[in-house]
Design goal:
CATH topology of the largest domain: FAD/NAD(P)-binding domain
Number of helices: 14
Strand content: 15-25%
Shape: elongated
Strand order of the largest sheet: 17-16-13-14-15-12-18
Structural class: alpha+beta
Oligomer: single chain
Helix content: 25-40%
CATH superfamily of the largest domain: FAD/NAD(P)-binding domain
């Protein structure tokens, strides 16, 4: 039977932010209903588990917070309540120990998401959170009730406050389709357009290159690019040549700058050092060694160690006559220019940028234009590279929104949200 004496919070969205919001509010004595559009919660969380479930990162503060770029200050305030160490402790309380990998990333020892999610959901149910799956949020009715589409038809549910944790626009098949944007804008809540983050980019490869080398890894390489202020940067890592362009962890790490450059210039210039650790002078000397009758491709393989997709990139840029200008070959190997045309579609991205503008929310993540409505997770206007930063901010913002909702409910004897 529903407890009508306690304030009631609706949490909409069963990802990490929503689940954390439900946990915090329930622990504070609030009656919590969690609504999820799909048939089960945590679907994108489980997808992250296929890569080992990179929960967080061991970066120290303030470096950790700086990963959130323009939103460093805002996210840092969330992390004061729930940082990487707190997240690891939270997982430990669920029986999941973690370790720091060689890259500084933090993973569960078994590198699986399912055991953690199962334990978490079990604990939430034991604590009293009511789960409602296959409930797709439609917005508000005229009397302020929350409207949901269900298998049995549309229904309306009343709550005293709501935490929206609806996700961004990436992986829409898992539930985060971004359809909430128009609904919130109609309520006067400012939303920045959702755009792809942690994504690949299109390059106009030749058909021959695609046929022979799509899917080939590029490692190690050093990326050279400039940020929005025109400052040049370099970062070593790994990426992959794809049928449509380029992707991979190195590209995701710099995707925000590349996307912004495309927004300004219509394209982005990315340079790849195919022979990191060697000076231009050394590469020039290696390229200039006598060929002794060998083909230029064989010469590159023997003297410079360039073959496969790296050699193909050289020919893609310089053409069949690449060996005619050895000085140009050396310079190109140290800085192969790539013209990025556009980001891959939002639905393919690991995460999205844009969303509910933080300026439209107060410090507790409550909508200034809609008291009693709180927002958390990837639907907020922030972004970060892969490496555990995404999940950490989702957890932390879910906690911040829930604490805000609890405080708001406890200070309002009438406990009414919306227009009801």
């Amino acid at each position: 039977m529903m407890d009508t004496n306690r304030p009631r919070l609706a949490v909409i969205g069963g990802g990490p932010a929503g689940l954390m919001a439900a946990e915090v509010a329930c622990a504070a004595g609030i009656a919590v209903d969690l609504y999820e559009a799909k048939g089960s919660v945590g679907r994108k969380f489980l997808i992250a588990g296929k890569g080992g479930l990179n929960l967080t990162h061991s970066d120290p503060m303030p470096l950790f917070a700086q990963r959130y770029r323009e939103r460093t200050s805002a996210v840092a305030s969330w992390l004061q309540d729930f940082d990487a160490d707190a997240l690891r402790g939270w997982a430990r309380a669920l029986g999941v120990e973690t370790y720091v990998g060689s890259s500084g990333r933090v993973f569960p020892i078994d590198r699986k998401a399912a055991p953690l999610l199962r334990g978490w959901v079990r604990r939430l149910k034991e604590q009293g959170v009511d789960f409602h799956v296959q409930h797709r949020w439609l917005g508000w009715s005229d009397d302020g009730a929350l409207r949901f589409a269900t298998a049995a038809g549309d229904i309306a549910c009343h709550a005293d406050a709501v935490v929206l944790a609806l996700g961004g626009g990436s992986w829409p098949q898992l539930g985060s389709d971004g359809r909430w944007q128009a609904t919130l804008q109609q309520r006067g809540i400012a939303v920045a357009p959702l755009v792809p983050a942690n994504c690949g980019f299109d390059i106009d490869w030749s058909a021959h290159f695609v046929q022979r080398h799509a899917g080939a890894p590029l490692k190690p390489v050093v990326a050279h690019w400039r940020d929005g202020a025109g400052v040049q940067h370099a970062l070593q890592g790994e990426c992959v040549a794809t049928e449509t362009g380029i992707e991979g962890s190195l590209i995701y790490a710099i995707a925000a700058d590349l996307r912004q450059q495309i927004d300004v210039d219509g394209h982005a210039e990315l340079g790849l050092d195919l022979v990191p650790g060697r000076t231009l002078e050394r590469v020039s000397a290696e390229v200039s060694l006598p060929r002794k009758g060998r083909s230029f491709s064989e010469h590159l393989r023997r003297q410079v160690g360039i073959e496969g997709v790296k050699a193909a990139l050289l020919y893609e840029h310089l053409g069949k006559q690449a060996g005619d200008d050895l000085a140009l070959v050396a310079r190109t190997l140290k800085h192969l220019p790539l013209r990025l045309l556009r980001p891959r579609p939002l639905a393919e991205a690991i995460s999205s940028a844009g969303g509910v503008r933080l300026e439209a929310l107060d410090a507790q993540l409550m909508a200034r234009a809609h008291p009693g409505v709180f927002c958390a997770g990837e639907m907020l206007d922030w972004e970060a590279p892969t490496g555990g930063y995404l999940l950490t901010a989702c957890f932390a913002s879910g906690r911040r929104a829930a604490l805000g909702a609890v405080d708001w409910l406890q200070r309002r004897p009438d406990r009414v949200t919306g227009d009801r």
